[in-house]
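Structure representation.

___
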Amino acid sequence: MTSSADTADKAGESTLDAFHRGAFHLVQPRRGHRAGMDAMMLAASVPGSFAGRLADLGAGAGAAGLAVAARCPDASVALVERDAGMAVYARRSIAHEANAGLRDRARVIEADVTLTGKARLAAGLVDGAFDFALMNPPFNAPIDRPSPDVLRRSAHVMEDGLFERWLRTAAAIVRPRGGLSIIARPGSLPEILTAMQGRFGGAQIMPIQPRAHEHAIRIVVRAIRGSRAGLVLMPALAIHEPAGHRFSQQADAINNGRATLFGD
């Protein structure tokens, strides 16, 4: 990921940001919910050889899904977003001329991930329609300091039972033996594992730490639909070198689409 390209619309409300060293671009709001490293780490959990249909649940402007499309030429992505305003940004990102090479492999589904039954099917989230699902759900607790920005707050504040509802949908739309990846705070792990029971197995858990000697601030959980394999705790990824703010070599490669999170 590079810093903002500072290309804004006429009203100054959006920016055009280059990711993966210019492999794809994102149109996103200048203020409020903006994509960054979380989305790139989540996208990097998808194997480099992935070929198939991927659903980016809670896609925002589409950073994670488009990152997969940019890295995996045989992948097609559906950006699933309930907020109409963010869905507009996702559509603008797909339509932008800088993403011409991805345009035919990306689409937006404007829908609430927690829909069930006929409502979910009518929205375009069809049973067994995807080979992989990404999830970057709101994971801040309601007691955390809320953002004054309504859009940012709705994208970050977790509701009770959120993982159960999101994983129920993921289990419906991902085919048997298909993949799932979630990025969240470490404190959410018990709820994630509980919601995965009977749905996804063979979980690999990757802690992500600011530095090797510091506590993890994120986890990425990757699992397989219908697998009965056991849980594996992977070696942690350190984002920065032991001193200073320079990215570690591994984190920089992952963040820029040059390596995958799990090494496959």
